[in-house]
Amino acid sequence: MKLEKESIYILITYLIVYLLPGVLNSFFKLTHMEIFNIQIVDYLIGACLLGYFAFHNMPTNLPEKKRRSVGQTILWGVLGFIVVIILQSVILRLTIQTGGNANSQNTSALLSIVKSYPIYALVIIVAAPIMEEIVFRKVLFGNLANLLSFINPKIAQLLTAFISSGLFALAHSDGHLILYAAIGLWFSWLYHHTGRIQTSMMAHILMNSLVVLPILGL
Asked: pTM for this structure?
């Protein structure tokens, strides 16, 4: 019961955080600068709140039954980052070869914001990966698998891995559903393999950092 309760808190909080800048803009007709400032504060507070719900007395779910050491978590976080970069390269190359467009409108739009407003990088590098891993991996993959374990634990985890990865891809809807779904599945595997959500968080943060930091000249 507590697992369900905490999961609902996380999903509601994430929805509020995600919608708040748009809702405020519709009422007050904010400038771009004001929207960016609100989104930075909103997302950073959201990441803290979701982190509190996710790590403060939340019951252990199926992927977390066997937790690896901190050292292994860090190792798999780095290896996971390397693999996800290779995975992206392969899928984007196949996309080009089949006549598709490898450019991501979502990524291009975010990077253009960072160029004009560097502090916005905090949203992309820190807040968004933390919230997305908690929502899509810990709740929609791990906690949901726990709730569906009456089917069969392994089948439940496989099913929720596809559900969470599909929703993760839809949340980044910019024409690259297969790419984002594949990334979601890989991050789910990292979480399952180490039993620690910090593993996929690390890989996700490193992945985003690789794209954003060069824009900042770092």
From this structure: 0.94
pLDDT tens digits along 18-27: 999 999 999 9
- The closest alpha carbon to 158, from 114, 190, 189, belongs to 189
The CA angle 11-186-153, to the nearest 5 degrees, is 70
Q: What is the CA radius of gyration of the chain?
A: 17
Please check whether residue 205 is in contact with residue 125, taking contact to mean a CB–CB distance below 8 angstroms: yes
Question: Looking at the annotation, which residues are catalytic?
Answer: 132
Instruction: From residue 50, give the alpha-carbon distance in Å to each of 7, 67, 106, 131.
Output: 10, 21, 24, 7
CA atoms within 13 A on the CB side of 190: 29
CB count within 10 Å of CB 31 equals 10
* Pair 156, 149: CB distance under 8 Å: yes
